[in-house]
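Handover notes (outgoing to incoming on-call)

Open items:
1. Protein kinase domain-containing protein: sequence verified, structure written out, both below. Nothing else pending on this one.
2. Nothing else urgent.
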Amino acid sequence: MNSVGPEYYCGTLFNGLGSGYNSTSYFDQCSFPKAIAASKVDVALIKQIDCTNRMCRAVFQSLEQTSRMEYYTNCTLTDTSTSKKISFQEVVNLCVNITTVAPSTAPTPGGAAAPIAANPASPSSSPSSSTNTSSGNNTGTVAVIAVAIVVVVGIVVGAFVYLRARRKQQPPQPQTGDTYLNMNAMEQPPPTIATKGTASTIQSSIGSANQQFSLAPGHVLRDLELYRIRAADVHPIKALSKGAFGEVWLGELFGEQIAIKKLISSKNTEADQQKFTSEILLLSKIECAYVVKFIGVAWTSPFDIMLLTEFMGGGDLRQVLETNKKTKKLTWTHKFKIALNIAEGLVFLHSMDPSIIHRDLKSRNVLLDSSFNAKITDFGIAREIDDSTLTAGVGTYRWIAPEVLQDGHYSESADMFSLGVILSELDTEVIPYSDLRNAAGKPLMDTAIMARVMSGELKPSFSPECPRWFVELAQGCLELDPSERPTAMKVAFNIRSRIQGFI
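Protein kinase domain-containing protein structure tokens:
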């Protein structure tokens, strides 16, 4: 997927401005903030109202430098008075040659502030009162300009720094394809397909969510505003998969394919929305070539928050391994690269401050592009480590470390155990422990597998053809004692040193 175009940056800017300026009563008389979130302005009203009002004009003064920033120089808006496009810089400079008057407390019927006529000197007037009035007007104007600047610095400049950092660290873009599977180890069939341009979109499907949802928009949406993309610009194309908590759609944003993740209606409670928001905010912090790329978030109400990420056209690792028995497209060269990519992703996560542990690392949560480059995904239950012990009860048990199954203790070492399980999958290409049988020749029961994993009696198997160094590396990750497992950095170094010049 190619990087999103200038529409993305301009949309982020205009959404932020609209929310920022409309959140204060200082600019209620101004026309500019009312339509900016929709990328629209009324030039005639701006000249009539905003340019002749000190409070409104402060908005344009605060935006002068912002309009010249590299991300925003090509931004355009629609002039609703002429239906023509006008550049953001032109809008900012509309008031340059228009005389400003003091703001009035009583707007004219047309919405403009009534000009304040100069008061002739009168017997009751005095130099002191005149000076105080002038000082009050100047102080008020300075205060309003300060408010406008705070809005811009807090929203626009913050967004600029964020977007600039994203572009500098942007990883190579994957090719897209027709296959994309589970972000949540989804076992259920996909929901009803909705195509772009129809009424049956993500927005409508989630509109039937629990209407008792009590989460105030400001409580959650405020934190997401910096990353917001207009919902009107997000076009769901088709549903790809659905699980117990969420569903994933293939979508389109400014002509580029993206993945759209949202909660299902039955999981759209306040607590679920809080967790989903935490996932989005967590992913927004991560800029790594080995972690699925965060694009943004969109919504029209607290009920329809959508996480937007890059679309990986190669599908998930579990699905690729299952089909490889027939296709034989995934070679050991590819497998080594996938193992290295996952390890490098964990190096990044575990090196963050505070450290991030994934907690649900498995083959379903490793996505591939058409060249078999791998990225880690699904941070729905990943959490930053704090001083408290994290609880168990999440993820899929076949990939979960013994200490987590036993007492819920989770650390970076638990992620390393999960990596060891994935390394065994890369070798055997089967679901962990599915090749094992009991004395009667039947597959082991789930409870039996969990009990034996917790005691250290059972570990994933490897084939005789698996390279010896790869087996030893995986077995190190699968040590019963968490302290005996290697760090992600050691694993990545080991793999890289083994395959240097080989792939």
